[in-house]
Amino acid sequence: MIDAIYIHIPFCVKKCNYCDFVSFSNNKNRDLYIKYLIKELKLYSNYVYDTVYIGGGTPSLLKIEEVKEILNSINIAKNAEITFEINPKTVDYEKLKELKNLGINRVSIGCQSFNNETLKILGRIHNSEIAIKTYKDARKAGFDNINLDLMFAVPGQTLKTLKKDLNVLEELSPQHISIYSLILEENTKFWEMKKSGELNLVGEDLEAEMYKYIIEYLENIGYNQYEISNFSKTNYESKHNLKYWRNQHYVGAGLGASGYIQNKRYKNEITFEKYFEKIDNKKFPIKEVEKLNDRHIEEYKYILGLRLVREGVEILNSEYVEIAEKLIKRHLLNRIKNRYFLTKKGLFLANDVFVEFIK
Ligand SMILES: C[S@@+](CC[C@H](N)C(=O)[O-])C[C@H]1O[C@@H](n2cnc3c(N)ncnc32)[C@H](O)[C@@H]1O
Ligand code: SF4
């Protein structure tokens, strides 16, 4: 069954120094893209969604009329979770209010940090004050399900500045927090800077210390860590993202978006030309398809499911039970009946755990 859709908006004011997502900082093809996106969405008119996630890029750059058109071109179930990504500095209170009036009931705000030095290093277009203002405006506009995105292990960041970020988070008290450690990606400014020796990455030990501190801090102030990088107040887990980790099917629409339909994982075209051309020919604008056999499906199930630190994943197949039991001996997994969970130690070595499940 398919009841989830991710919709990608590939435009940003400026490319951040660490980001390799499909997004462009010029407005080329901007109007045309929305027209084609709507056509693509209509190709999936047989589905009804109870979670919708409009991400990017920077969806908050869209005009209200465009957001309305996008939402009107899909079938949305009653009481669906509709998430919209917001970048500070691209919205004001009025626009947030309009988004709320369209039925959007969850916003995800990319704050990244509340330290202006860190924000500058990341190449963000906003400072801390603007991020806080955006959050407060969202609250004022009536949003009562707000995620804040943060990053840690950013060059120049220390335990002291990280603690201050957490203090601000505590004060703002959003319902949900996603906090990712920096990943150095190819084709980013950070990658170039690293190559030329201009970037001092945070060492592994400090990164682990930061992660440990984050978990303890957030759990202490009432957040449940339900996924490796995600924390929420009770009953405010992201319904949409839970579907990814539970290995459920979903539509991915838009330039470069990924989806999972009928046991096939696919990725859409990443150039406008090819994306438009396929839609003009009444085809799905898909670039690559990975058809999964039973073994692949199982591997995805375990690797994704183990990310859910409280829910864990059921393993019944004896081949994989054997792998999981070996990981228990290494104190990386725990088991309750047939369900397996990452241990505290396993959380820090999650990638080492996951590779064991790939044959
Ligand atoms: C693709 S972004 C979209 C959100 C929005 N455009 C923004 O930046 O505010 C989703 C989140 O992924 C995280 N992210 C992106 N690139 C990352 C990287 N290289 N390492 C760690 N986290 C990253 C950031 O926290 C970001 O908010
Ligand atoms: S992190 Fe977000 S705002 Fe920055 S370039 Fe990537 S998608 Fe755009």
UniProtKB/TrEMBL annotation:
Gene Ontology cellular-component annotations: cytoplasm
Domain of life of the organism encoding this protein: Bacteria
GO terms, molecular function: 4 iron, 4 sulfur cluster binding; coproporphyrinogen oxidase activity; metal ion binding
InterPro entries reported in the protein's UniProt record: Aldolase_TIM (IPR013785), Coproporphyrinogen-III_oxidase (IPR034505), Elp3/MiaA/NifB-like_rSAM (IPR006638), HemW-like (IPR004559), rSAM (IPR007197), rSAM_sf (IPR058240)
Keywords carried by this UniProt record: 4Fe-4S, Chaperone, Cytoplasm, Heme, Iron, Iron-sulfur, Metal-binding, S-adenosyl-L-methionine
Gene Ontology BP, a term: porphyrin-containing compound biosynthetic process
Localisation: Cytoplasm
Gene3D superfamilies assigned to the protein according to its UniProt record, in alphabetical order: Aldolase class I
One Pfam family this sequence matches: Radical_SAM
Occurrences of domain Radical SAM core (ranges): 1-224
Assigned protein family: Belongs to the anaerobic coproporphyrinogen-III oxidase family. HemW subfamily.
The protein's role, per its UniProt record: Probably acts as a heme chaperone, transferring heme to an unknown acceptor. Binds one molecule of heme per monomer, possibly covalently. Binds 1 [4Fe-4S] cluster. The cluster is coordinated with 3 cysteines and an exchangeable S-adenosyl-L-methionine.
Name of protein: Heme chaperone HemW
Species the sequence originates in: Haliovirga abyssi
